[in-house]
Every structure is written in structure tokens, then in C-alpha cells.
User: Fold this.
Amino acid sequence: MKTLKQALLMLALGIAGLTSAAAETPVEATVRKLVEPRLGEGVKVDSVVKTPYAGMYEVRIGSDILYTDEKAQYLFVGNVLDSKSGTNYTKQRTDDLNKIKFSDLPLESALKMVKGDGKRVIAVFEDPNCGYCKQFRKTLTNLDNVTVYTFMYNILAEDSKVKSKNIWCSADRNKAWDEWMLNGKAAPEAAANCSTPHEKIYALGQKLRVTGTPSVFFVDGTRAPGAMDVKVLEARMAAAAAPKPN
Assistant:
């Protein structure tokens, strides 16, 4: 079993391009100096913030969070829940850290499916060899008035790249994708000189820390890893599109 230090080291090495948060208070800075060397060589703490609960300090490494006390004597790994309301404060925080700017997604490099008026919009990262993605694709067929941008994110098998290229290079990409994902009918072999955006999409997925498929992104920048049923998806789209309080 991996030690906490080993796990945190691997986490730190997998996170790049992240910068420290706003200026810390003197106490928070002291906690950082105390806790960072105790996490293992190579681990970089991105921020330390005092929380409003139990006098704990949030220690952020990328989009992952753990907690410590003022003397960095103890480390707490897990979720902080409000025992009365059931609110998961850790999940709220990690969801916020994982938000993206939807308008920055390179939608021209995605498959685009429009149903009905297309007013509701989501983006999905899927691998052609992903069973859960095929299940989720069936769920999407039950939606109306939606635009779905699908990024073919080849992470599960070497031949995912081949399947994605054949689909991208098809005369009707959306039809070829659905034929494969819903009916198991493979697209014809693509010409050798047909170029695809798949390396670009792979790099994007790594940057956004997409570690599994399907991964769904909503217009408010929130995400949902894994397949969802229609009711959950409808609720998430409605929440994403709802006006935010000032």
C-alpha cells in the first residue's frame, strides 16, 4: 500500500502550470512552511487557507485538498461535512477549483450534435472504447433541445486513436460516431493523410485533469465525471444555466 507521502508526491508530479493563490496571512504562511516538508520531497503546496470550521487549515495541492492544524501536527484526508445540513464543504471547494471557462474549449475540434432548438449546451470527453460512454450516448438520445460537443479523448487503448481517426475522417462524423457507439459498427479506414485534432484534445484533457470518460462539462464551467441518467443530467443542465445570485 502506498504511503501518504508517496501518494502526495505522485499527485504533485502530475500537476503542472498551477500557481499559488492570493497572499497568505502570516499564520497561513507559517502553516505552509511547517506542512510542506512533511508531505514528502517534491510536493508543492499551492495554498494554505484557514477554514471557518474547527480551526483547521485547508492545504491545496492542485485541485486536491487536505487539512491540518495550526502546528501542522496532524493531517486530515477526506471530506468535511456539516452534520446538521449535510453540506459537503470539501466537495463544494473541489468543484469550484475544477471549474473551467466553457468558452475557452476548442469546440471546432469536437463533434457537434444538435437536437431540437439546441439551446442547452454541454461538452463531453469520450473514448471510443469506453463502455460507460456508450451507455451515456444512449442517455443522450433521450434528450431534446440540446447541443452536445463531443471531444474524442483517446486514453483507454492504443486502438482508440485508430477508431477516433476513422470516425473524424468520415464524410459524416456524427453518424459514424453514433454508428460505433450505439451499434458497434466501425467506420471505414481513414486515408493516411487525413489529419485529426486528437493530439490537441489529449493535451487539453490532461490540462483540464480529465482522468476518466465520460466527463461532462456544463456551461457554467462545472463538470461531472462518469455516466448519468436523464434526470440527473437534466437537473445539472438546468442548474448550470440558472442565473447566479449577485
Summary: The two ends are 47 Å apart (CA to CA).
